[in-house]
Design goal:
The chain is of the alpha+beta class. It contains 12 helices and 20 strands. It folds into 3 domains: about 220 residues, HUPs (Rossmann fold, 3-Layer(aba) Sandwich); about 100 residues; about 60 residues, no CATH class. A hairpin with a 3-residue loop joins β9 and β10.
Amino acid sequence: MYAISPREKPAPRNAHNMHDRANVARALAAPGPIVVALSGGGDSTALLHFLTETAGAARLRVAVVDHGLRTGSADDAQRALGFAEHLGVAGQVLTLSGVKTAQASARTARYQALCAYARAQASSVIALGHTRDDQAETVFMRAASGSGWRGLAGMSAFAPAPLWPEGRELMLMRPLLGVRRAALREALAARGAAWLEDPANANPVFERVRVRQRLAALEAEGLDTMRFAAIGERIAPHVAALDAAAADLIARAVRFAAGSIEIESSDWVGTDAVRQRALGVLIMAAGAGEREPRASQLAALCGQMAAPSFKSATLGGTLISRAAGQTRIARDKGVLSGRADGAGPLEPLALPEGVEAVWDGRAALTMKRPGWSVLVEAGAPVLARGEDRLPIEAASPVWLLAERVARELGATPKTWVA
C-alpha cells in the first residue's frame, strides 16, 4: 500500500525557481493542454503544483496510470486523481490490463496509455516528473551497462515521445531535471500538500531501486552523486550537434520517395560519426524499427558503402542497394512476406472507415470505405476486402519516413527534398 508522507513546514519555495521555465513556455506555446503524468508520488505531485501555479489549471490535464500490478493500486490512483481535482485540474485514471511485471513492459504500456490519452485531449506535450536524482541514476545505469556516449547524455528535457507511431507528433517535457528529489518534497511540505510513497520504490528487485540505494550510500560517504547528472549535461550538447550535422547531411544528399529513401552517393560526404548517425535513423525509419541498429553494425555498413564495389546489404529490416550512383534504402520484402527461417509475415491491418491508421510504422492510410484492410502480397502492400483488391494508393497514403527521421534528429522535414 501507499502511505501518505508526513507533512513538515520548511521555508516555502517559489514554483518559478523550481522548474525549467523555458521548456514550460515552449509547451504552453504548443497546441492543446499539457498532459501531466501523475503517479501521486512526490515528484509528479510537485510538478503538478508548479505547473498549476505557472500555467493555470485550465491548461492542464492529468493522467494517472494504474498498472494494476499490486493490491490497492486502484485506490491509490483515485487518491492521486484527488490531488489534481483539489487543484482544479481535470484528469482521468488510465487502468491497464495484462501488463507484465518487467519494468520495460510496464514502461511501454504506460507510454502507450499516456500517448493515447494525450491524443484524445488534443495535446502536444506530456509532462513527466523526472528529477536530477533520476538523471544521475539513469547515467549511472547506462554507464554500468556499457552504453555508448549518446546514452550517457541521459534523459532530455524536451524530446519526442519514445514510441512510434503511438507517439507521433507528441513531445515529452521533463522540467524538473535540474531539481533534487528532496527539494521537491520540501516544497510540497511548505505548501501543506500531501503526496504518496510507493513501496515499490524501496524494492531492490528493481534495478533502479538498487542503483538509487547504492548512490545514496556513496553520497553518505561524501561523493557528490550529482556528478553523474553533470556528465549527461556535458555530453548532451555534443549529441545535439551530431544530430544537427546528420540532419544537414540528409538535407544535402537524401530524397524521400514513396516508401523508400534515395541517397545521392556523391553528396554523402561527412565524418564517420555523422554518416553513421544519419544512416542509423534512415534505416530505422525505412525499416520501421524501434531503434537504430547497433553502432558496430552501422560502422561496418558505412565501411562497405564506401567501397566502389558495394552492391547491396540488409540491416534493420531494410535492403540497402546501389545502382547508377544512388543508394536506395527500402523495406526488406522478406520481412514483410515472411522468411525461410520461420519468421512470419507482417500481420494485416484493419482500416476503420474514415479514420487514419498507420501501417508498418511507415504510412498513414485513410480508407473512405468500410471493411478494408491492408496486407502484404508478393512483398508489397495492397488493400483487401474479401477477394477484392485495390492498390494502396486508394487509401491516400502519407509516407512518414521523412517525418520520423526529422523527429529523431530534431529537424524540420519541410526543408528536405521529397
